[in-house]
Amino acid sequence: MRSDSALFGLDNLPYGVFSPSATPGERRLGVRLGDAVLDAGAAARAFGSPHHALLSAPTLDPLLAAGRAVWSAVRAELREWLSAPAHRETVAPLLRPLSAVRLHLPFTVADYVDFYASEHHAGNVGRIFRPGGPPLTPNWKHLPIGYHGRAGTVRVSGSPVIRPLGQRRPAEGSARPGFGPSERLDIEAEVGFVVGTPSTPGRPVPLTALRDHVFGVCLVNDWSARDIQAWEYVPLGPFLGKSFATSVSAWITPLDALDAAWTAPPERDVEPLPYLDDAGQPPGGLDLRLTVAINGETVAEPPFASMYWTAAQQLAHLTVNGAHLRTGDLFASGTVSGPTAGERGSLLELTWNGERPLELADGPRAFLADGDEVTITAWAPGPDGERIGLGEVSGTVRPAP
Amino acid sequence: MRSDSALFGLDNLPYGVFSPSATPGERRLGVRLGDAVLDAGAAARAFGSPHHALLSAPTLDPLLAAGRAVWSAVRAELREWLSAPAHRETVAPLLRPLSAVRLHLPFTVADYVDFYASEHHAGNVGRIFRPGGPPLTPNWKHLPIGYHGRAGTVRVSGSPVIRPLGQRRPAEGSARPGFGPSERLDIEAEVGFVVGTPSTPGRPVPLTALRDHVFGVCLVNDWSARDIQAWEYVPLGPFLGKSFATSVSAWITPLDALDAAWTAPPERDVEPLPYLDDAGQPPGGLDLRLTVAINGETVAEPPFASMYWTAAQQLAHLTVNGAHLRTGDLFASGTVSGPTAGERGSLLELTWNGERPLELADGPRAFLADGDEVTITAWAPGPDGERIGLGEVSGTVRPAP
């Protein structure tokens, strides 16, 4: 494992929001370099940046709304401030150790949409719940299936996750549903895309316009209560099985840091409709290598490059009906699962619906136990063989009330 | 039909946000009385109200967040200002004719949840799409089914609705989905509940606490593209078939105005789990009489009193998993349909999936045509045989781009 300094070098520079330990009520915009956080507002003032107002805001919202040209200009400034030897003395006092700050949800989540874009994940779910039938529903290869989640319960990495109460399917022979703490609490390792520039109501966003709208990427753990979900989801989809918590990384990696990570998505065996057809476009997949750990033990390494539907296709689909984007919209990929058993991004798949528990150091795990800490990390190829780290998303399960 | 003055008297006093025609960029908080709008901020300043800051805001958000005691105090002030003869001269210049203002979306929608709480509606949908099977899914009588919609496309009454583009199921014999403007654009006549006071993360809200959290009620038209929805919704529920537009009335009627409208919900033939059991509670249904008109012709009169699941039950269910409420959360009832054919709140049911078109003055209608204007109105019993009007929700269909 490389050091964090190598994963969060000058070619990365993700954005977040922090409080200094001494003044926990304050919110400042920060940029990560190695194991340090640059106070971006203070730096902008020190260097007389034209973007000092954006960078002095208590959230990323104004920067997100400022648009692509400003994103590039700010990134160029940051690289200059953090690399030019002449600036070293100015910058040094504005860098704080990560250990001396608290990180916050860095932007206001407008709408949260969750997709279902991994063929391996959707296929595994189909094989588990509809054995004998075709693993994918008939629409799956024609559109990136998605649904709206609860924006209000998106929280930053490190926030605890309280095991949800809820109904589950009546036990064999009973007419009454069960009720209580979820017995099948699960994770979903995902990648999220954060919208900066809004779009116009009524105007679909073409898949070539991803980078005009999307500011950056975060890691997402879309915690899921499988027993609640299984009972409630017909016919209107997941609701309480998902809405109790969605964790996101504290750091948003700008798309500009991922230039070397674009890769061709898997070959499409069904021709997409024109608004989803990316043949002839630059590669729309992203080579992000995820790692899922429970209490420090790696349980899966899901490869984002294996996702069938790309972020650009998800964006085009999301808006094809005229729904517009707002600054702060978050859309996540759905569980990232690769073709092999060790690449699955949910316990549902890793334990095959609990039938084959994982053997962890402290015992077997079909689903999550109270006290379990789940951490998702990822890296992407950067320039010259470097690695670009994504901020981790982590959370510990607390018992139901 | 009674005059608007009778429907919007002193016992009603709904809240909205308006711009004076002369200064369209301004936003002011307004209270409706008859066909006039009181400039609430100006009145608060004129009378030296302790709530002048809340009432001078450009949205209802601060008032919503202020909580139940403030809602009651402000309402008492408004009634005093608008009724005492001594105040007449002060108030008169602060009242503007409705025709001289433009109305706006009155609050920031946080999360939007749509329920499915009418047994008649859910049953009709079941009979249409799963003929021969049981009309309700096995979970329906055990929980108020719901899902999250798109908060960003909630818009105020009077906003046009652009016919969405989208995929539909492949035609018989074709492997490729159809694509184009929806051919089955529909309405859903609903009642929405606007959350004021937030709740604590991880703490379910009991069904006795509705009035501690919910500020008021609006009318909702949850526009639906049935062809898009039918193709996309398995397995994760409705998405693009709904997300293009949801219209809400410009006026939010405070729950305090609906004291005389509470009524017992239909008898439950399945005993609800304890967190949903309202036996022994004051009646949780609301006697709101809706009218749906297309181009001025009444096509349905859905009775909200016939809803199986109450707003209090919806709130208790929404939060039972620990999901918290935020100021501005909007939860809608789902289509309001009564037991008889003239009481159905969607064209899907009124025309039985297009098989029996409505005969309107300008021709038959299976689903909505471009140019159709849909208006939903409602009233509730008030004190002493009065009627309390809800603000209308109206929208005109514009052709697809």
Describe the biggest sheet of chain A?
Answer: 8 strands, mixed
- And the CATH topology of the largest domain in chain A? Fumarylacetoacetate hydrolase, domain 2
Oligomer: homodimer
Tally of separate helices of chain A: 12
Rg of chain A is 21 Å
Write the CATH architecture name of the largest domain in chain A: Alpha-Beta Complex
Largest interface: A-B, 59 and 59 residues
Q: Give the % helix of chain A.
A: 10-25%
Which overall shape of chain A is indicated by the principal axes computed on the Cα atoms? globular
Structural class of chain A: alpha+beta
Q: How many E-type strands of chain A? A: 26
In short:
The first copy, chain A, is an alpha+beta fold.
Molecular structure report:
- Two copies of one chain form a homodimer.
- Chain A is of the alpha+beta class and 401 residues long.
- Chain A folds into two domains: 4-104, Fumarylacetoacetase, N-terminal domain (SH3 type barrels, Roll); 112-398, Fumarylacetoacetase-like, C-terminal domain (Fumarylacetoacetate hydrolase, domain 2, Alpha-Beta Complex).
- The first copy, chain A, is built from twelve helices and 26 strands.
- Chain A has helices at residues 4-7, 40-46, 52-55, 61-66, 68-83, 88-91, 119-129, 210-213, 226-232, 240-243, 311-319, 347-350; strands spanning 15-20, 28-33, 36-39, 95-97, 101-104, 112-115, 146-149, 154-156, 161-162, 165-168, 178-181, 185-186, 189-195, 214-221, 224-225, 246-248, 253-254, 262-263, 285-286, 289-294, 297-300, 330-332, 358-360, 363-365, 373-381, 387-398.
- In chain A, strands 6, 7, 8, 13, 14, 16, 17 and 22 form an eight-stranded mixed sheet that branches.
- In chain A, β2 (28-33) and β3 form a beta hairpin.
- Chain A is globular, with a radius of gyration of 21 Å.
- The interface between A and B is large, with 59 and 59 residues.
- Chains A, B: GO terms for molecular function: fumarylacetoacetase activity.
- Chains A, B: Residues 12-106 form the Fumarylacetoacetase N-terminal domain.
- Chains A, B: Pathway: Amino-acid degradation; L-phenylalanine degradation; acetoacetate and fumarate from L-phenylalanine: step 6/6.
- Chains A, B: Keywords: Calcium, Hydrolase, Magnesium, Metal-binding, Phenylalanine catabolism, Tyrosine catabolism.
